[in-house]
TrEMBL record:
Protein name as catalogued: Glycosyltransferase RgtA/B/C/D-like domain-containing protein
Sections of the chain in a coiled coil: none
Transmembrane portions of the chain: 7-24, 63-83, 90-109, 115-136, 143-159, 165-197, 269-290, 302-321, 327-348, 355-372
Keywords from the UniProt entry: Membrane, Transmembrane, Transmembrane helix
Keyword match Iron: no
Domain of life: Bacteria
Length: 488
C-alpha cells in the first residue's frame, strides 16, 4: 500500500513537471500577452511595492464603480518584489503557482473514487489547453479554477464529516474577490444549490463559513465606508437600471449561453477540436446516465448530484444575466466538468479494461500530438506579445543614442499602460532614462499598434500629428508594430 502511494505521487510529480513545461515554455521565450490589463496592474504594483501606495480595491470590473478585490494585487506584490518588476519572471512564478492545480485535482479525485480516479483527473488537467492557457496569462479571473478546485475539495470534506464549512466560506470569498463576474454568478448558484439539495449546516458551521467568507471582504468594506459606499450604490444602480435590457431576447440567450458552455468544454477537454470535444461530451452525458442508474455509493452519488445542480444553476443564471457574457465569467466551470469527464473514463476503463484503456490512450495521445504539432508552427506573435514590445522599446533607445526623447503611443485600447510600464521599468533598469510623458523634446518616437478593426483611427491619429517634426524613418517591427522617428 505504501509503495502504491509513493508510485501514485511520483506520477503526479512527473505530470506536474510536464505541466510546468507546457505552461512555461512560451513564457520563458517571451511569448506571452502583455496587454492593457497587465500593464495597468504592473504600474499599480510598481507604486505599491516601490512607492508604498496602498490600495484597498483591485482592478475595475465591467460595472462602473464596482471593482474586483484587492487580494489580486496583494497576491502579486511579493511575486513582483521577488522578480524586481520583471514581467517575464512574474509570469513564470505565476505559472508555477497555477500549476499546483494538478496535485489539487489529484487530491480531489482520490477522495471521490480513489487513486486511479485522481490520476485520471491529473492527466486531463496536465494536457488541457484551458489549464495551460490560464497558467500562462496573468489575469485575475484566471485564479478561479485553482480556487474552484479547492472549493470542491472543501465541499467533499464537508459532505463526509459535516465539518470544515469555514473552508467553503474561505474559497467562496476568494472566488468573489478575484473575479466579481464569475464570483457573483458562482456565489448565487452555490447558495441556490444548497437550498435545492436541502444542505443546511448547523449554526456553528454556518457562522464559521460566514467568517471565512467575509474576512476577505474587509478591505472592500473599508474602501466603501471611506467612499460613501460607492460600490454598493453603483451595483444597485446597475441592477436597477432600465438600460440593462439585453439586445438579444431570452430565447436567443438560451442558445448563446449553451454554446458558451459548450465552448468551455471544448477548450478544456477537446483540445480545441470541435469534433473530439463534442464526441467526448456526448460520451460523457451517456456514461453519466448509465452510471447514475448503477451507482450504489450514496455519498458519491450525492456529491455528483451537487455538481449537476450547481452546473445547471450556473447555466440558468447565465441565461438570466441580460448583458453580454464573456468567457472569463465562466472561468471556473471547466473544473466543475472535470469530475464528470473523469468519472466517464473511470467507469469505462473499470468495466471494459482493454477497450477503455485503448480509447483513453488514444485520447491522451491525440492531445499530445496536438501540442507537438502546435510547437512546430512558426509564429512571431502580434502586437500584444511581450517579446515584440520589448524589441520595440530596445529599438527606440538604441536609435536615440543617449539623446533624451519623448514617446507617443497609439493603442487600440486607448491607454498605453503596457508601454508606460515597459519604459518605466526596462528603460530605467537598462538605459537609465525614462522618457517624460508630457514635456517637449526635439526627438520623438511614435509607436503605433495595428488597428485591424478600425484602421482609419490610426490615420486620424497620425493626421493630428502632421507637422510635429520631420519623419526621419518609418519602420515595421515584429507584430506589425509601426515606429516613427521624428525630429522637431
Amino acid at each position: 500500500m505504501a509503495m502504491a502511494k509513493k508510485i501514485s505521487w511520483l506520477i503526479v510529480a512527473v505530470c506536474t513537471l510536464v505541466g510546468l513545461y507546457l505552461r512555461l515554455k512560451g513564457t520563458w521565450s517571451g511569448f506571452f500577452a502583455f496587454t492593457f490589463d497587465q500593464g495597468r496592474d504592473f504600474l499599480l504594483l510598481h507604486n505599491l511595492v516601490y512607492q508604498h501606495v496602498l490600495t484597498l480595491i483591485g482592478p475595475a470590473s465591467g460595472i462602473g464603480g464596482v471593482f474586483h478585490g484587492v487580494w489580486w494585487y496583494w497576491l502579486l506584490a511579493p511575486v513582483f518584489w521577488l522578480a524586481q518588476g520583471n514581467p517575464r519572471t512574474v509570469f513564470l512564478l505565476f505559472g508555477i503557482l497555477m500549476t499546483f492545480i494538478i496535485p489539487l485535482v489529484f487530491i480531489l479525485g482520490k477522495r471521490i473514487a480513489g487513486t486511479f480516479f485522481g490520476l485520471l483527473q491529473v492527466l486531463l488537467v496536465t494536457v488541457s489547453y484551458f489549464y495551460i492557457g490560464i497558467a500562462a496569462q496573468i489575469w485575475n479571473p484566471n485564479v478561479a479554477p485553482l480556487l474552484t478546485a479547492g472549493l470542491l475539495i472543501a465541499v467533499w470534506n464537508y459532505f463526509r464529516n459535516r465539518t470544515g464549512f469555514i473552508w467553503i466560506g474561505v474559497c467562496l470569498g476568494l472566488i468573489l474577490e478575484f473575479g466579481i463576474g464569475y464570483g457573483g454568478l458562482f456565489l448565487l448558484s452555490f447558495i441556490v444549490t444548497l437550498f435545492i439539495l436541502k444542505i443546511r449546516p448547523n449554526t456553528s458551521q454556518f457562522l464559521k463559513g460566514l467568517f471565512g467568507f467575509f474576512i476577505w471582504l474587509i478591505p472592500r468594506l473599508i474602501f466603501d465606508v471611506r467612499h460613501n459606499f460607492i460600490q454598493v450604490q453603483s451595483l444597485l444602480k446597475y441592477l436597477g437600471s432600465h438600460n440593462q435590457i439585453s439586445d438579444s431576447p431570452l430565447i436567443v440567450r438560451i442558445g448563446e449561453r449553451l454554446l458558451l458552455f459548450h465552448e468551455q468544454f471544448i477548450e478544456a477537454y477537446g483540445f480545441r477540436n470541435t469534433i473530439v470535444g463534442s464526441l467526448l461530451l456526448v460520451f460523457t452525458i451517456g456514461m453519466l446516465y448509465w452510471w447514475w442508474n448503477h451507482e450504489r455509493i450514496l455519498e458519491r452519488k450525492f456529491y455528483f448530484r451537487f455538481l449537476f445542480v450547481l452546473i445547471g444553476m450556473l447555466y440558468i443564471f447565465s441565461v438570466l444575466y441580460p448583458q453580454p457574457l464573456w468567457s472569463y465569467y465562466l472561468t471556473g466551470v471547466p473544473v466543475l466538468f472535470l469530475p464528470c469527464v473523469s468519472l466517464c473514463w473511470y467507469n469505462l476503463v473499470k468495466r471494459q479494461k482493454l477497450l477503455g484503456s485503448f480509447l483513453l490512450f488514444g485520447y491522451l495521445a491525440f492531445g499530445l500530438y496536438v501540442h507537438i504539432r502546435s510547437d512546430r508552427v512558426s509564429w512571431e506573435g502580434d502586437a500584444a506579445v511581450y517579446k515584440n514590445q520589448l524589441a520595440v522599446v530596445d529599438a527606440v533607445y538604441q536609435e536615440a543614442q543617449d539623446t533624451e526623447f519623448v514617446v507617443q503611443v497609439y493603442s487600440p485600447s486607448v491607454i498605453d499602460y503596457t508601454y508606460q510600464y515597459l519604459f518605466l521599468w526596462y528603460g530605467e533598469k537598462t538605459y537609465g532614462f525614462v522618457p517624460p510623458r508630457s514635456e517637449e523634446r526635439p526627438l520623438v518616437f511614435n509607436i503605433l499598434e495595428p488597428e485591424k478593426w478600425h484602421p482609419k483611427l490610426v490615420e486620424a491619429w497620425l493626421r493630428e500629428r502632421e507637422g510635429d517634426g520631420t519623419i526621419v524613418w518609418d519602420k515595421i517591427y515584429p507584430g506589425e508594430i509601426r515606429v516613427q522617428k521624428r525630429i522637431r
